Structure formats: C-alpha cells, structure tokens
Amino acid sequence: MIQEYELHDMVEMKKPHACQTNSWEIIRMGMDIRIRCNHCGQMVLMPRREFEKKMKKITVKAEQN
C-alpha cells in the first residue's frame, strides 16, 4: 500500500542516514523526489519508485493552507 505523502511532509526512511537519523523532509516532488535530512541538512534525490520502496512512514504531515 502506497501512503499519501505531500511536499514538506516529514518521513521516516527504513535505513538511517550516515548521521544516524531516519527523519527527512520532502522538499521537491515530481518524477524524482528530493529529501533533506533533518539532522545534518544533506539532500538526496531519488526516483519516486525507489523513494516509495525505501520510505517507512509519514511522521508529520505538512500544514494545509
């Protein structure tokens, strides 16, 4: 089941980053997804399919305006 994620949602990935955190923010969406580590600020760009496979859950939903 694919979760409904949106821009600026905070997500938890299955494997921790090198800085030992799993918390990321979605900062770009399209064919590729760009996420930023909430601990060290590192940015990663990955194809949508790979992102959906590696994402564990949505921790904080972005505020709706």
From TrEMBL:
Taxonomic superkingdom: Bacteria
A Pfam family assignment: DUF951
Protein name: DUF951 domain-containing protein
Protein source organism: Granulicatella balaenopterae
